[in-house]
Design a protein that fits this description.
Blueprint (H helix, E strand, L loop, with lengths): L2 H19 L3 H10 L1 H10 L2 H13 L1
Helix pairs in contact: 1-4, 2-3
């Protein structure tokens, strides 16, 4: 993978996380109710933003 493509993908991931993940009320609620691991699991497996992040991760491999 070209460094410029990788840099662009990482930039898109960072922008997505800054826009949607920072300050997410669902993450905060689940973390408070069920713990940090449950909140992380929710973000990775059920959140629509997490799905997009996984797709970017597949492209970075």
């Amino acid at each position: 993978m070209k460094p410029s493509v990788r840099k662009e993908l990482l930039s898109q991931v960072e922008g997505l996380m800054n826009q949607y993940c920072n300050g997410c009320f669902l993450h905060k609620y689940i973390r408070k109710a069920d713990g940090r691991r449950a909140a992380h699991r929710f973000c990775i497996s059920q959140c629509t933003v997490g799905e997009q992040l996984r797709e970017y991760g597949k492209k970075l491999d």
